[in-house]
Amino acid sequence: MLDLSWCPKLEKIQWPAIVVKELNVTECRSLQQITYDTEGRTLSIQHGACMRLCYVQYGFKTKPVREIDVRLINNVGFFSLDSMADVEVMITNCIVWSKVKRPVEILWECGLFSIYFPGQEVPFWFMYKINGPTITLNVSSNHQIRGLNVCVVYTLSDIVNWLQDPIEVKVHNKSEHFVWPYRPRCYGVPEADGYIVWLCYFGLEVLLEKGDEVEVSFEMKVEGQIKDCGAHLLYYEEVKEIKQYCDTLLCC
């Protein structure tokens, strides 16, 4: 184990071409990123209380929406989010043990993209919406699948332990008997009597086939409530069309 904990001036780590079982950078409050040389890696990282850590290569990355190329956001189907650049939301980050109100940002982990913002309803461009935690849909037989966007509108009790992962989503391909569960380690905390909208993009082009039946379900792991949920299958042919539609609405 390599212990670099409690180094207040440490800002970046460029890991050399060696393998170490464990790296401890706990309480390195200026640390912003950890990257690796071609053959270097660590099997485990302790990074609690690294309040500014926003990037661990192969691990996770967070970045404010205002700093992201809008084309990237559109490519994962997060349309019409330009207006969120100046919106702030309370984010609990269980990865680095922080709870801070900050501008809306994108989270990447486990190959998935997530975003949280204050809101009361599933975005208008979602094809499937329902009151409750579960929704079922079918993959088109006419188009090539690119991915799946899921959405949930939820609230949390004000007594929730903020270091817990409060919500889980499961994408169940009922045709192929495959389940992909995900519990994000960062999540939005609603204001009093308010709700949070969570959008999550699954790149499922290799896991979903034409005609498959898919069930998306959300479950609260702590005291809270799911108001609505939604799902939207993203096809290669559709991305440009939805972007043009959103632009038209914003200009009206």
From TrEMBL:
Lineage top rank: taxon: Eukaryota
Domain C-JID: 117-239
InterPro entries: C-JID (IPR045344)
Keywords assigned: Leucine-rich repeat, Repeat
Protein's name in the database: C-JID domain-containing protein
